[in-house]
Target: Glycosyltransferase
Amino acid sequence: MHAPSLPDRTIEAYTDVTGHGRLERLRSLAETLADRRILHVNSTATGGGVAELLRSIVPVCEDLEVGTDWLVVDADDDFFEVTKAMHNGLQGSGPPLTGEMKATYRAVTERNAVELDEEYDLVVIHDPQPLGMIDRLEETMPDAPIVWRCHVDLTDPSEEYLAFVSEYTDRVDHAIFSRSAYEIEMDAPTTIVYPSIDPLTEKNRSLDEGTMATERDRMDPLSFDAPVVTQVSRFDPWKDQFGTLEAYRRARESVPDLQLALAGGMAGDDPEGEKLYEQVASKAVDDPNVHVVTDLPDARVNVLQRLSDVVVQKSLREGFGLVVSEALWKRTPVVGSNVGGIPLQIEDGETGYLVDPDDASGAGDRVADLLEDDRRRAEFGENAREHVRERFLLPRQLVDLLEVVVDALDRSG
Model:
């Protein structure tokens, strides 16, 4: 296992984006957790929403003097092939789960757990990938509560995958889900905590005019002199970039000079990403107004979301989809699928529009509606900024998380 490098963060830096009462609540919770040590474990340091969350949560906790570490599983492609199948299976569409897959999973999680040579008062395991470490953790840290933080959409899981994961989740002390619809039957207490964005990161902070101009020029041949609709997401079948292409083509019937940017990254634990990127690029290669790009630096993603006229999130399933809040924070309205955490972020008819996940034509029509009404886009953008400020910024999520930590430690005695 290894510890990713982390940026500097202070709680005071959030004074301008959140209420005084929320920051005081964080300080109070931190005092309660003095002298406690917390460990977060996940499967990748780059490319996914969980890694982005931890990259901000951990240093803020440290600034609050809550001893917090973050470790990432070390594994090879065989393991990540298995865990991607688990992810897909838990979201309803995975290959048969074989004995060999289970053995690979158990061997890698056991090997990583053996490497833990420090003790913690509480361990937070993120998603299914590191859950197999519980066997070892129960031996080495028998008094430490285990919190499972599930970021996956579990509304329609494959029974065989759910049964396998339940071998471990049945032994956790607390579980956190992103929506009540994702909760599974468990003996342990459960809590709903919405994920959040960090408004201070390079991807979300305000940018000076020089940076905006430089990053804009670097996106040539994409031109912001004509309308732009954008989707920012990993190259993953659930993100439905192909459906976004359909929606764009529908919108172009009303807005002929429309351009589409499909921007995404490759998560370190997702072996499907490169293949899907190539498939999407091949579908778009004959249209010079479609720009398929990958691994943009965060400042460029920031500028792309700010300068786009509309952002689309055409997911078929979605654990939460924080790219929606990223765009809304930048006053860009979003047309998103009515799945997962997306409807929690989009207020339909106020900050953007919700459409059925299989309705590419409807998504295209909604994009065209916004492109043809400058006043509505501006109004939606202002509404969006305030909606995210109240519900989806890091200090609120951290309050919710630390309240769970305090409760789990109190119950453990």
